[in-house]
Amino acid sequence: MRPVDPGSRQPRSGWPCKPAQRTSIGYDFAVIRFEHVTRTYGAQVALDDVSLEVRQGELVVLTGPSGSGKTTLLRMIYAAERPDRGVVELGGRDVGRLRRRSIPLLRRNVGVVFQDFRLLGDRTALENVMVALEILGLPRRVVRERALLALDDLSLSTRAEVLARALSGGEQQRVALARALVGRPAILLCDEPTGNLDADAGAVVLAEIARAHERGATTLLATHDPAALRLAAERGFRRVTLRAGRLEADEVSRPALVMSPQRRERLP
Ligand SMILES: Nc1ncnc2c1ncn2[C@@H]1O[C@H](COP(=O)(O)OP(=O)(O)O)[C@@H](O)[C@H]1O
Ligand SMILES: [Mg+2]
Predict the structure, then answer these.
(1) Position 13 pLDDT exceeds 70
(2) Is the pLDDT assigned to residue 254 strictly greater than 50?
(3) Can you point out the beta strands (E) in 159-245?
(4) Measured in angstroms, how far is the CA atom of residue 69 from the centroid of ligand 1?
(5) Half-sphere exposure of 234 (CA within 13 A, CB side)
(6) Which domain, by its residues, includes 171?
């Protein structure tokens, strides 16, 4: 097999995402689609008849109390779980029906960040980021260069050679974010990314996630961190609420569209 150069891949126009249809209201292509998805574990219902569409370039804050199904929903997007009933589609493809050997290809298009960072503690920050590119079979020099750029982008250049376990929590999560983003995925999934961080480190991580979204990644941020929910409200992000596995609310606050009295006066 020929090595794939991720620089020449264009995940946002290739698989799993069809080219976006630009319409008057924005990009109208559902990158992620859940259709009546149910998942149970024994008697426990993790997701209960959830239908949801996420369009290309959106940022969706996924919220709800602990045990409401947020993690299960995210895991379905990268094919770590399959629905018992219903369909999960990524770029128009049924994830539940993917062959096992197609799953790594899907995962190249999805970057994931977890609450507990999941770094290799006895490897350096740089090595942790390189891992994400090594599976693509690129030359080691290229892998190293790109990993360094990804770390630099998250203001971690001076920490590249430090063992992951010697980094602060905030730094570890930024390394995890660099690892998630280094392959330029079309989709970024963050599962309680600030859950183990203090307020200051959490704010930095949230700002970096928002920046990754601004650069084009369709982003799902599962959280019940009040700071993350405030950021969502301030920036007018869409907020989807789960409760006991059911989709309870799907709302967008659009502060940018709330008119100031001055502006209203100027209108005809
Ligand atoms: N692998 C599993 N085995 C058994 N129960 C599970 C498993 N994964 C999730 N659950 C249950 O499904 C429900 C939803 O869990 P989860 O998706 O982790 O919620 P959240 O991320 O919102 O806290 C919970 O009641 C949880 O206990
Ligand atoms: Mg969870």
Answers:
(1) no
(2) yes
(3) 187-191, 218-222, 238-243
(4) 6
(5) 9
(6) 119-184
Q: What is the 264 CA–ligand 2 centroid distance (Å)?
A: 43
Residue 252: the pLDDT is 86
User: What pTM was estimated for this model as a whole?
Assistant: 0.86
CA distance 141 to 220: 32
Asked if residue 192 and residue 180 are part of one domain, the reply reads no
Question: Which residue type, as a one-letter code, is found at position 108?
Answer: R
Cis peptide before 261 (omega within 30 of 0): no
- The number of the ligand 1 atom at minimal distance from the alpha carbon of 39 is 12
Tokens of 1: 């097999």
CATH no. for residue 65? 3.40.50.300
**Is 251 buried (19+), middle (13-18) or exposed (0-12) by CB count in 10 A?**
exposed
pLDDT tens per residue, range 45-64: 999 999 999 999 999 999 99
Number of other CB atoms surrounding residue 24 within 10 Å: 5
Token readout for 149 is: 């750029």
Question: Is residue 105 in some structural domain?
Answer: yes
147 and 253 together in one domain? no
